[in-house]
């Protein structure tokens, strides 16, 4: 589950991580009041107005701007709230901005220059261990840094038995070129950041930039946080962070129905049981000359009601030109799935305007194919082998 910047900072702050303080606002008037409160709390007289959407690169799309007084806070907030923000991480249509974060100015003058760093904590899937990825080139796209100057990307793997050790945090601070009080502050920052990541059961914490202020404080100026949804039962308070306005509406509906659905950009809808088979099915569709329109895992149950819900969700995508049902009957019998497909089709016959290819393998697969083939007046085509299913997809698309 992705979080907004202000929500990620709330988690960070609760674990002792220094942050750029701010107050979220839904309207320009609220933004002005937030700025006034921020001045009382921090003494800041300049403010950073930040669009709150689940996407990076907001500054490049005009979603992050500096306001030097309250009048500019209102004007800028009025411009940003309600805009369709287009960034390198959104679609061409962009994302609707419904709220802004009014944050304190932390680039104030002082004895030394400010410096920006990149620090993230995530799982290294190759080793099965958490790692801290960091770079002295903060404030830039980390992909660009990795491409042009890979020697400036550092990683520190964490032993799951011991967690992040103090010497590793000191090593990170050293590699970032820090010394004196800034070195000590970065060491504390990294230790607290890892604790926040681990205790919140997060999938990723990405802080870009981490700022060394002119008075040698280390703070998170941004926070891109993704929580592990499988662990949310242990963090009931985090459930309130979910913002369905930022999620694909069909995915929200599918989740409410207990289906695992991810929208894609193709033309062939997929209904599969099991994530591995779903991935293989999407490969099959591409080999047949099509493009998968979605990932949809119906799980171990594929009765008529569940299949009908899945069909209705898939068909909400106007780009779908065909549907491929690919079910392995291990726990569930294939003939029951076939009957579910037939019953669902009849229940919503007027709503189905694309051909459906059904491949069922496993328990009672022969009986399932016979049941499908016996139907009249249904645009449902049976298949047995993977290659046969691919050919059927190719036929209906041509």
TrEMBL record:
Top class in the EC scheme: ligase
Domain ATP-citrate synthase/succinyl-CoA ligase C-terminal: 271-393
Gene designation per UniProt: sucC
Reactions it catalyzes: GTP + succinate + CoA = succinyl-CoA + GDP + phosphate; succinate + ATP + CoA = succinyl-CoA + ADP + phosphate
UniProt keywords, alphabetically: ATP-binding, Ligase, Magnesium, Metal-binding, Nucleotide-binding, Tricarboxylic acid cycle
Role summary: Succinyl-CoA synthetase functions in the citric acid cycle (TCA), coupling the hydrolysis of succinyl-CoA to the synthesis of either ATP or GTP and thus represents the only step of substrate-level phosphorylation in the TCA. The beta subunit provides nucleotide specificity of the enzyme and binds the substrate succinate, while the binding sites for coenzyme A and phosphate are found in the alpha subunit.
Protein's organism: Wenyingzhuangia fucanilytica
Short name of one Pfam family: Ligase_CoA
Protein name: Succinate--CoA ligase [ADP-forming] subunit beta
